[in-house]
Write a structure and sequence with these properties.
Elements: E1 5-14, E2 17-27, E3 32-36, H1 43-50, E4 58-63, E5 66-67, H2 72-78, E6 79-82, H3 94-104, H4 109-122, H5 138-150, E7 156-160, H6 168-183, E8 187-191, H7 195-201, E9 204-209, E10 212-217, H8 219-226, H9 231-239, H10 244-253
Parallel strand pairs: 3-8, 3-9, 6-7, 7-8
Antiparallel strand pairs: 1-2, 1-4, 4-5, 9-10
Helix pairs in contact: 3-4
The structure holds adenosine-5'-triphosphate (ATP).
């Protein structure tokens, strides 16, 4: 099977600070890739490159066989991106905002409106569809953001911490949705710090630290390699620099 996303020796520096130091990976259709790593490891930078938001990188990135450097616009149309932080144009209602997103992707008005209404209703926002989003809670905004990322039915869905602010029921819905999208043949690139969720939804996990891949495999394979039961523990074993108790003690000493 041909990979949907192929990354070879990806490097990126901000000024003289190199934050991606030669990442290589392939992602296949229908795969849910959990892309994890400590704060500042380079996850968002990788994702921004994939989405065409950062173009000054070294190495090769291809999506469905197309080189990202020369086919950025075509690739953007295949990708749905739910960023970690986003401005939602607060003065708009969710319907207006999603109509705007739909029009950017060339979605026809009828199909677009139909999908928008169904998605907002499924997210429990049926009574808020025509309210300005400046009155929305964090979770309500996150639901609109999620809808905007999948509205055009992209083949590749990139989720950067998509569960932030969502209540426990909504988290379950999104976990189910991720599995169903993958069964439907979509490729999901999923960045998160919620290890319990990554462990459950991903069929492959890549752990990066300091701009390099330090572990790559299914959760079961990582468990076998590391001899640990939870992804949280595997993550800690491979990335923690100090004991957590010492760090907490150090923080407490700030009050002395
Ligand atoms: N625009 C920028 N200019 C300069 N440095 C940046 C910029 N964006 C990110 N960095 C740096 O690049 C490194 C990787 O950042 P990135 O946001 O990719 O990490 P991350 O793995 O997504 O982290 P987090 O888990 O905290 O979201 C960090 O050291 C960060 O300070």
């Amino acid at each position: 099977m041909e990979p949907v996303i192929s990354i070879r020796n990806l490097r990126k520096s901000y000024g003289d600070k190199e934050v991606l130091k030669g990442i290589s990976l392939d992602v296949y259709p229908g795969q849910v890739l959990g892309y994890i790593g400590p704060n500042g490891a380079g996850k968002s930078t990788t994702v921004k490159i994939l989405c065409g938001l950062i173009s000054d990188y070294e190495g090769e990135v291809t999506v469905k066989g197309l080189d990202l450097k020369t086919n950025s616009l075509q690739i953007k149309s295949m990708i749905g991106y739910v960023p970690e932080l986003a401005e939602l144009y607060d003065v708009l209602t969710p319907v207006e905002f999603l109509q705007f997103c739909g029009s950017l992707y060339g979605l026809g008005a009828k199909t677009g409106n139909d999908r928008i209404e169904k998605m907002l209703a499924a997210f429990g926002l049926q009574n808020n569809m025509h309210q300005r989003m400046d009155s929305f809670s964090k979770g309500m905004r996150q639901k609109v953001l999620l809808a905007s990322g999948i509205l055009h039915n992209p083949d590749i869905i990139i989720l950067d911490e998509p569960l932030s602010g969502l209540d426990a029921n909504s988290v379950i819905i999104i976990k189910e949705l991720i599995s169903k999208l993958a069964k439907d043949g979509k490729t999901i690139f999923y960045c998160s710090h919620m290890m319990d969720v990554v462990e459950k939804v991903s069929d492959r996990i890549i752990l990066i630290d300091n701009g390099t891949v330090i572990a790559d495999g299914s959760f079961e394979a990582l468990q076998q390699q590391q001899g640990d039961t939870s992804l949280e523990q595997i993550f800690a074993n491979l990335t923690a620099k100090n004991s957590f108790t010492n760090t907490a003690d150090e923080l407490m000493r700030a009050f002395d």
